[in-house]
Amino acid sequence: MAKSDGCDYFKRTSMFWIVSVTAAMGYFTCIVFVPERIPYEYLGFYGSFCKHLVDNYADIMYKGWLAAWAIHVFEAYIALKMCRDKGITNTTTRCMWVFQTFLFGFASLGLLLKYNPERPKQN
């Protein structure tokens, strides 16, 4: 089996984080932009809480939504820098890390932070 020099290291984040982050950001987006489409009465206490936030703090919710995406953009930028620092030179692999980190945030960035190219792999 050929050894890789680490220039194309990529690891997909777990399905748990993919589903969790997608659902949370999707719900947050719906609360901000189409709150009338959410069936709050079926969500119990959580629905009542969300309805209260939409009715009383819509402007803060919108700013929080913008902040959440800004944080994801910043994390993607950090992922790009980390790829360079860790010797991941393959352009496609770097793009995959940046895109995955943009979508799933620290769930992806954490995998990249854990990657240590100097340490030999043990199977």
TrEMBL record:
Pfam families on file: TMEM254
Stated name of the protein: Transmembrane protein 254
Keyword field: Membrane, Transmembrane, Transmembrane helix
Localization in the cell: Membrane
Source species, domain of life: Eukaryota
Topology relative to the membrane: Multi-pass membrane protein
Keyword Transmembrane: yes
Presence of keyword Transmembrane helix: yes
GO cellular-component term (any): membrane
Membrane-crossing segments per the record: 15-34, 95-113
